[in-house]
Specification:
Layout (H helix, E strand, L loop, with lengths): L1 H27 L3 H19 L6 H24 L3 H4 L10 E5 L2 E2 L4 E9 L9 E5 L2 E5 L1 E5 L2 E2 L2 E2 L2 E13 L2 E4 L4 E5 L23 E5 L14 E9 L7 E2 L4 E7 L8 E7 L5 E2 L2
Parallel strand pairs: 2-17
Antiparallel strand pairs: 1-3, 3-13, 4-5, 6-12, 6-15, 7-8, 9-10, 9-13, 11-12, 14-17, 15-16
């Protein structure tokens, strides 16, 4: 019975550590050998506890064995390169984005024109996911921009943004359908835009502008060759001091069709163009 109990404990620790370590390493892009070293160190530490005249020394030894076995498996994984294709993201649908802001030198009260463009150059579609705008479900690909801010509020919006989804037919771009322009205000950073409080009505201080490839009735993926484009104009706040303005950041959110679980891609694209506010 004691052998069975010890074996069960060792196996539980080993599989629990591997179940945690491998997904964590892939998501955080941490080399496997680092986690192997950490688990090896923990195993050695529990070996030391197992030698001390304390209660539950057998439990400490079993935990040590589990950590050391997990470390050994991770070490073998590192040297064989089994996980390298996942680190390289082979087979993932990773779209790109072009961003621009004009002009790059402005004074308080001047206008800044932002453009974000993504074209699906791959042979498979980027799949839609669900968002809620004013309580209405929209299923589509989301392109959005975190606006430059001043005192926690986004730069003021001028006029109406433009959002389009087009496809090339015979060398000419044609509109695929209407898109929904959405806005949000994030008091604290949040990673999943699927749970944000989106609205189709702009209110002063909102710091996110986006577009969804859906009009609330017709929902669309981003098919191969399709292009989505979001354009809007902001005003530099009148009280903005001279110097660099906070940078905007573009993002894409969609489901990846090449993964069995339709993994949700959240891609971020810092603006390379920097705006400097002149005195």
């Amino acid at each position: 019975m004691r052998i069975r109990s010890g074996t069960w404990r060792v196996s539980t620790v080993m599989f629990a550590m591997l179940f945690f370590a491998i997904p964590f390493a892939l998501l955080a892009s941490i080399p496997v050998w680092i986690l192997a070293a950490v688990m090896g160190g923990l195993g050695v530490g529990f070996v030391g506890l197992g030698r001390l005249p304390i209660e539950r020394t057998e439990l400490a030894r079993n935990i040590a064995k589990g950590f050391l076995l997990a470390a050994a498996i991770l070490t073998i994984t590192h040297f064989t390169g089994w996980l390298e294709p996942f680190y390289r993201r082979d087979g993932w649908l990773l779209l790109d984005m072009e961003t621009s802001v004009m002009p790059q030198s402005a004074s308080p009260g001047d206008s800044l024109h932002y453009t974000l463009t993504t074209t699906n150059t791959e042979g498979i579609p980027a799949l839609r996911r669900r968002y809620f705008s004013d309580g209405v479900a929209h299923h589509g690909v989301l392109l959005y921009c975190l606006l430059p801010t001043r005192n926690g509020d986004g730069f003021p919006l001028e006029g109406m943004p433009s959002a389009t989804q087009t496809a090339k037919l015979g060398g000419t771009e044609h509109d695929v359908g209407d898109c929904t322009i959405v806005y949000a205000h994030l008091p604290i950073p949040e990673l999943n835009p699927g749970g944000w409080d989106w609205s189709s009505t702009y209110r002063e201080g909102m710091d996110v502008i986006g577009m969804i490839t859906s009009d609330g009735q017709q929902h669309r993926d981003l098919e191969p060759g399709d292009t989505i484009r979001l354009e809007f104009t902001l005003s530099v706040p009148l009280d903005h001091p001279a110097g660099p303005a906070r940078s905007a950041r573009g993002s894409l959110s969609y489901r990846d069709p090449q993964w069995a679980t339709h993994y949700i891609q959240e891609l971020r694209f810092p603006f390379r163009d920097r705006v400097t506010v002149m005195p």
